[in-house]
Amino acid sequence: MMKETAINSVLNTMAAPDPNSGEINSMSSDLFQCIKANASSAKKKTTNGTPSWLKFKSKSADQKMDLVQVLAINALELTAPAAFFLRPSITCSIPNSPPPTDSFNRRPFIQVSGHPGSLAPAGPHTLWKKQTDTSTEIEVYEYLSTSEDPMRNVIPKYHGKRLWNEDIFLELEDLLDGFGPSPAIMDIKMGSRTFLENEVTNIKARNDLYQKMVKVDPQAPTPEEHDAGAVTKLRYMKFREEQSSTSLLSFRIEAIQFPYSNNIIDVKTAKSECHVGEILDKFLPCSEMKSMLLERLKFIKSTLEKSKFFMHHEIIGSSLLIIHDATKISAHLIDFAKSVKSPTNLSHFVQWEMGNHEDGYLHGLSNLIRILESKQ
Fold first, then answer.
1. Which among 11, 100, 110, 314 has most CB atoms closer than 10 A?
2. Stretch 108-118: mean pLDDT, rounded?
3. Is 116 exposed, middle or buried (0-12, 13-18, 19+ CB in 10 A)?
């Protein structure tokens, strides 16, 4: 009964296409039916065995928790910046946003990922992203946009730095531009860690981190840590990464949003390869979409392997943003607020140890490709 309730909750997040909308074509309707049929199939196949892909939190509109809040909370908890994008909404808009350009189609927007208030629509094809004092994102975009480094081909296009009300914004390509009115969206946090080395150098054990740890898993601390009632930040952060697939696969799926729904599904605690694979199946229920995404991911991998910038930088807390509708799919690297230059060349494959600066990015991307290939 519990599993069936969870499945019904997920099915309820997939609101049917609005028949009165002239923008919705028959292909997008077919995709919606394909997704819903696959979810219905999962409902019929539930057993009393291993928990299925639905062992995650479903956030409904009644709970007043949208993707912006979930990913922002995730980012604060895991000290990694959340991903970003805006999605058209009928009822929501961003307060205190900069004035749109004259040519801007004044669509209302809701920010469905990232830190609240950090984004605003800037024009028909671009967004403004607010920068923090510690962000390295400006340097990343300004370097890649003016160089011949191939990594520039797998990130949003950069349109310059803007000043508004004494805040600095980046004007970036709106990755949703060109898609249907309500595409499917997935945010994947890449890498084997979501923290910089300089964030975990303090060896002082802390009681507040111990309390957070035992709240999640009372058996996690060692006998010595129980006696001390404290753990170091490095120990705690490693423990946090172990609560998702980050430690095992060097990536974790943060959240997904299905077409024609403002509801989100928080899946960051999906830990096993099997669980992650089942979630990917639900997000990409049709083999054609899987093939299209695989082609794009392989292109991204080969591009990064040729990038001198990539090989000399730790890419920490960055996301892979995947968007698809009935006709096409895209994937881009986003969020470079914690991308810092490494003193040595990086493989992005080697297991991280303090001082080697490895981030596991290519290890995670290779695992994602391998899992998708096994689903074809």
1. 314
2. 45
3. middle
